[in-house]
C-alpha cells in the first residue's frame, strides 16, 4: 500500500511506548502508579449524566445541525461572554472534543509551506496536526523561563515574522500548568497585530486554576478578528469520554472550517450536546470541588518533591507539572516505569527534553506511593 506524505511524516506519539510498557507490566501483575494520564480521575457530575440519559429517553438521538444544537451554542455564547469574548451562535461550531475543533481549525488555516509557531513545551497533537496539514513549525522554548511566556517575549518576537501564519497559545498549559500573565498575552497581541498572525487560543484548562484568573486572548483589543478560541468539556467537567468541544471565531473562519466539520463528523453526538448544556449551566459546585482537590494534590506533590530536593515550576492551572530529569528523558521515563512502576510522559514528547510530565489527577495515596517509589529507586 502507498501512504500519503500527510500521515507518514507524523511520528507515532512518544507516549505510546510508555503506555505499552505500563500495560505489559500490569498484565504481568505489577501495580503501576499511572501519573501519565491526561484526564481527571473524577466521575462526570451526576446531573450531567442524568441530562444525557434524559436526552436519550426524549429521543434526541438523530443528527443535529452540523454546527450543533442552538441551545448549546447559546449556552456556549453565554460562557464565552463571561470570559470577555463576544460571539454570536453563528460564530460557534460544536465538535466531538476540542481535539477535533483544533484539527478542523488547523486544517482550515494551514497548508503546504505555511508557518505555525508553538510555545514549547507544547501539547503533543499541535505538532502532528500542523505537519499533517503540510505546515512548518517554528518553536520557542519556554523551559529556561520556568515555562512562563512573559520573559520569553523577545524570543517570540525573534521567532515570528510577516511569514508567520499561525500561533498556538495554550494557557493554562498542558504539560506545564503555566498560566500566562496579561502582559505576556498583550505581548502576543502586539506581535500578532504587527505581523498579521492568526492565533488559536486553546483554553481547555481555563476553569482549572489556583488563585489566578486567566485572560482570554481573544478578549484583548485588536484580537477579536484574528483569534479562534477552542474549548471543551473533557477537563473542567470530567467528560473526556463524552467527546464534546467547540471553537469560536470570525464567521469567515467558521464558514470554511464548517465545511471540514460537516464533511467529516457531520455533528457532535446529539444527546451529548444536551448534557453539555447542563455542564455549562449547573456544575459550579462540582467544578469547584474538583479544582480544590487538584489544588491540594498540587501542594502535596510540590511538598513531597521538595523533601527530595527537587524544585519544580509550580503550576497555576491544569493538573500537570514538569519534573526536571536526565537529558535523556525517554530513558528516564522507561527506567521509572520498569524499576519503580511509575508511569510519566517524557518531555521530548512535548518538544522539551530533560523533563518528565507528571499528572496529579490521581488520589493523594497514589501520588505519595508514586513519589516514594521514584525516590526509592533513585529517580529523584
Ligand atoms: N488541548 C489540550 C491542551 C489538551 O490537553 C487536550 C487533551 O488532552 C485537548 C486539547 C483535547 O481535549 P478533548 O479532545 O478531550 O476535548
UniProtKB/TrEMBL annotation:
Molecular function terms, GO-annotated: pyridoxal phosphate binding; transaminase activity
Gene Ontology BP terms: amino acid metabolic process
Keywords: Aminotransferase, Pyridoxal phosphate, Transferase
Cofactor(s) the protein requires to work: pyridoxal 5'-phosphate
Record's keyword annotation contains Transferase: yes
EC number annotated for this UniProt entry: 2.6.1.-
InterPro entries documented for this protein: Aminotransferase_I/II_large, AspAT/PAT-like, NHTrfase_class1_PyrdxlP-BS, PyrdxlP-dep_Trfase, PyrdxlP-dep_Trfase_major, PyrdxlP-dep_Trfase_small
Presence of the UniProt keyword Transferase in the record: yes
Pfam assignment, any one: Aminotran_1_2
Signal sequence extent: none
Source taxon at top rank: Archaea
Domain Aminotransferase class I/classII large: 31-374
Matching Gene3D superfamilies: Aspartate Aminotransferase, domain 1, Type I PLP-dependent aspartate aminotransferase-like (Major domain)
Protein family membership: Belongs to the class-I pyridoxal-phosphate-dependent aminotransferase family.
Subunit and interaction comment: Homodimer.
Protein's name in the database: Aminotransferase
Organism from which the protein derives: Natrarchaeobaculum sulfurireducens
